[in-house]
Design brief:
This protein is α/β, with parallel strands linked by helices and 255 residues long. Helix content is 43%, strand content 15%. The chain has one domain (7-248): NAD(P)-binding Rossmann-like Domain (Rossmann fold, 3-Layer(aba) Sandwich). β1, α1 and β2 form a beta-alpha-beta unit. The longest helix has 29 residues, at 109-137. The termini are far apart. The structure holds nicotinamide-adenine-dinucleotide.
Length: 255
């Protein structure tokens, strides 16, 4: 084993959904900086293009792709485009996600469905389509973005927490099914990071203070702090790691 290259992911082909979002863009910049080639897929094509413009500053290749992860046909078209450009997919970052925060009694059936469909069904459609490619390749890494809310509860988060809990379970089943074929499936569980998804919620001083008292490090995460774990899970350093969720949460789950 070449220990110098344990975390070397230069040249790897990484497909990220939700790559035009706040955390997605930060992740893409970090991965580009260490030499990965990246397909940035997002429902918002303009934001995917913007992320690609940033990535190209690192001298690496990037492909912006429009996708709606809730639509299996759109997901298949995304995979075809990535294969046409790069010929293989080494890592799938299943990262697109949404949230609607409300008291449980106030959700409409449509709102419940919407969050579950993007966050859980979307992850499944992408994992299935890319999984087929990786099973043929005999290698691949899938990293699903869950949340600390997969493990703990919080008011106003009934559907989001349910979707993220589902991701942790889906990760385990896919990991077991695909382990014999060289495909590792893991998840990351971020705590609170200030992004478009959370900015309004975290701007309420009462919410901020309540959340911060429950984080041993007494601060929210910076998007760049996700990258080390993603590089680990994408690299030779984690060949024997599958089915797990790694929480990146300033110690939130310790309480
Ligand atoms: N921000 C946090 O504190 C936090 C904490 C835990 C987990 N997460 C997770 O991280 C991921 C990204 O969150 P973020 O804070 O960067 O949010 P964000 O809103 O900035 O980014 C989400 C991205 O997903 C895209 N997207 C939404 N629906 C889509 C669909 N149907 N098809 C394709 N793309 C779609 C959006 O266009 C957007 O670019 C989400 O899965 C979220 O649940 C975030």
């Amino acid at each position: 084993m070449d220990y110098q290259k344990l975390f070397d992911i230069s040249g790897k082909i990484i497909l990220i959904t939700g790559g035009g979002g706040t955390l997605g863009t930060a992740i893409c910049k970090g991965l580009a900086a260490v030499g990965a080639k990246i397909a940035v897929a997002d429902q918002n094509l303009e934001s995917a293009h913007k992320t690609c413009d940033l990535i190209r500053e690192y001298g690496t290749e990037c492909l912006p792709v429009q996708v709606d992860v809730t639509d299996p046909e759109s997901v298949k078209a995304m995979v075809d485009q990535v294969l046409e450009k790069f010929g293989r997919i080494d890592v799938l970052l299943n990262h697109a996600g949404i949230n609607i925060r409300k008291p449980a009694v106030e959700y409409t059936p449509e709102e419940w469905e919407k969050v579950l469909t993007v966050n859980l069904s979307g992850i499944f459609h992408c994992a299935q389509a890319v999984g087929k490619v990786m099973l043929k390749q005999g290698s691949g890494r899938i990293i699903n973005t869950a949340s600390t809310l997969a493990s703990i509860s919080q008011p106003l988060q009934a559907v989001y927490a349910s979707s993220k809990g589902g991701i942790v379970q889906l990760t385990k089943v896919l990991a077991e099914e695909w382990a014999p074929y060289g495909v590792n499936v893991n998840a990351i569980g971020p705590g609170y990071f200030e992004t478009d998804l959370t900015r309004k919620y975290l701007s309420d001083p009462a919410v901020r203070d309540t959340l911060l008292t429950k984080i041993p490090m007494k601060r929210f995460g910076q998007p760049e702090e996700l990258i080390g774990t993603i590089i680990f899970l994408s690299s030779e350093a984690s060949t024997y790691v599958t089915g797990h969720t790694i929480y990146i949460d300033g110690g939130r789950l310790l309480y």
